[in-house]
Specification:
The chain contains twelve helices and no strands. By secondary structure, the chain is an all-alpha fold. Among the domains are: about 80-120, Arc Repressor Mutant, subunit A; about 125-340, no CATH class. Helix 7 packs antiparallel against helix 8 (about 175-195).
Length: about 400
């Protein structure tokens, strides 16, 4: 174990030439980032998750009720033992051959069986109330941490001159503000990483998982080798647009359409300008070129910049999807009535889409004998379910 740790913490990987871990030990005169400082993030991530549960229950939920957001979830499919067995044990998306077999077995028409499977898939989705509570929690945290970041950074010299991120590097003292900022951001992303498996599942689940892993890796990397100054710039820049998208989603759930459209437009402008403009010109320029000129490259420098470039690729992907969504609305001439967070077959996970499975009035269902498993009471159901669509529904 000692050999593995020695290999992992190799100074020639983590630190610039002629710098050792001993040089960055805390003294009475100066405090430097220590890897063990980040251990605090694990229990704090659990605390943040518990705070989230309390917040959603006692703050977000009453707010949603005040806005007349209903707690009712999607309509449940009628009880049917045969279809339920197929759904749970075989497939949630039966093919044409299986549908025809079930139609003969139950004496139901294929359209009705398709609708039953659609309703059965949808009934496990969270209600609009749950979505509102999740968005309100994220909005509150992002607003707080972004406000904190702006108030802290406006007093720092590296906000105005990014070369200050590298002068006297890595012998830059760790301040209480930077330590708090880092531990809180890391704890939040850790809580998101694990709660992603219990939260509303979106279409780009794996992309968002990769985003969280990249964010956690960047925060950890930049703290351990004391690139904390540029790290604070990256974190603050990314929190800005997240505030607006969560606010837009809340407006959408509350059916404040004009406000939703306005907030989404602001989000799209800020996201694209900050992630495709400010980020590469301001952040990548200093980490790739200014740091090369002042400090010079070393192994963990390459890893850090590769992670930043990966983040830029994700920015480009999401920006493309946002522009695609806007262009689709413009091309269809529906800008005036357009709901950007309620668009069918939208590709961005944060742009909540409505169910696009409304098939219109169904054909008459065949009446089946009492020997079949289940009864058909919903002849008039058209399969339309409120709430956002999930990946498997497109």
């Amino acid at each position: 174990m000692a050999g593995i740790l020695a290999w992992f913490w190799n100074e020639r990987f983590w630190l610039p030439h002629n710098v050792t871990w001993a040089d960055l030990k805390n003294t009475d005169e100066a405090t430097f980032p220590q890897a063990e400082d980040l251990y605090l993030a694990c229990p704090l991530a659990f605390c943040i998750f518990m705070i989230r549960l309390i917040f959603e229950r006692f703050i977000a939920r009453p707010c949603a009720m005040g806005l007349k957001i209903q707690a009712n979830g999607p309509q449940k499919a009628q009880s049917n033992a045969i279809l339920e067995k197929v759904f749970t044990a075989i497939t949630k998306h039966p093919d044409e051959k299986r549908l025809e077999g079930l139609s003969k077995q139950l004496d139901w028409d294929v359209r009705t069986i398709q609708r039953w499977f659609r309703q059965r898939r949808n009934q496990e989705k969270p209600s609009t109330l749950a979505r509102f509570c999740e968005s309100m929690w994220k909005f509150t945290f992002y607003l707080y941490i972004f406000t904190y970041g702006v108030r802290f950074l406006k007093k720092t010299p590296w906000l105005w001159n990014t070369k200050e991120c590298w002068y006297n590097y890595p012998y830059q003292p760790l301040t209480v503000d930077i330590h708090y900022y880092y531990v809180l951001e890391l704890s939040f992303y850790l809580s998101l990483l694990f709660s992603q498996f219990t939260d509303i599942r979106r279409k780009d689940f794996l992309i968002m998982f990769l985003h969280h892993v990249a964010a956690i890796s960047l925060i950890t990397f930049s703290y351990v080798n004391n690139m904390a100054r540029v790290g604070t710039l990256v974190m603050c820049l990314h929190d800005a647009a997240d505030v607006l998208i969560e606010a837009a989603k809340m407006a959408n759930y509350a059916k404040c359409q004009i406000l939703c459209n306005l907030l989404f437009a602001m989000f799209a402008i800020l996201f694209i300008s900050s992630r495709l403009g400010v980020y590469p010109v301001w952040i990548l320029n200093t980490t790739l070129f200014e740091s090369w000129e002042i400090v010079g490259p070393y192994p963990s420098w390459w890893v850090f910049n590769l992670l930043l470039i990966l983040l830029q690729l994700l920015h480009s992907f999401w920006s493309y999807l946002i522009v695609k969504t806007v262009c689709r609305a413009i091309s269809k001439g529906k800008v005036g009535k357009w709901n950007p967070l309620h668009v069918s077959k939208d590709d961005r996970s944060d742009i909540e889409s409505s169910s696009d499975e409304d098939d219109g009035p169904p054909p008459s269902q065949k009446h089946h004998s009492s020997a079949t498993n289940g009864t058909n009471k919903n002849h008039g159901t058209n399969g339309y379910l409120t709430g956002g669509s999930y990946p498997d529904e497109h």
